[in-house]
Design goal:
By secondary structure, the chain is an all-alpha fold. The chain is about 65% helix and about 0% strand. Helix 2 packs across helix 4. It starts with 14 loop residues before the first helix and ends in an 8-residue tail after the last helix.
């Protein structure tokens, strides 16, 4: 089948025809932004931010027993330089590696090149 050159095909769309697409794109962006950020994630994130504000680091081992809190912390390290500065340490990485079950923590251990506990 031979199609005409694109320059000869003139399609005009009414602005009202495009509005549903704009709404769909905006809705999709919101969904994309919210993926993985359910209630448990948001609560864990808030608790971690409280730790940073209060400097009560003793609660971290218990908090990080939940995968969702580990995920929230690693995302906060990426998004918030203050959290990265206050909560990134060899000791915290060691706690995370020890606490995580061996199969779920495998990606984490591999990502940080950890073969044995940090000293």
């Amino acid at each position: 089948m031979i199609l005409p050159p694109l320059e000869l095909v003139k399609i005009t769309w009414e602005s009202s025809s495009l509005e549903p697409w704009i709404e769909l794109v905006e809705s999709t962006r919101k969904i994309e932004d919210d993926v993985g950020r359910g209630d448990a994630y948001l609560k864990a994130e808030e608790k971690l931010l409280d730790v940073v504000r209060s400097r009560n680091f003793g609660v971290l081992p218990a908090l990080l027993k939940k995968r969702v809190a580990v995920r929230a912390l690693t995302q906060l390290w990426l998004d918030d330089s203050d959290v990265l500065k206050r909560l990134m340490s060899p000791r915290l990485l060691e706690i995370m590696v020890v606490i995580l079950p061996s199969n779920s923590g495998h990606w984490f251990k591999r990502s940080f090149g950890l073969q044995m506990p940090l000293g």
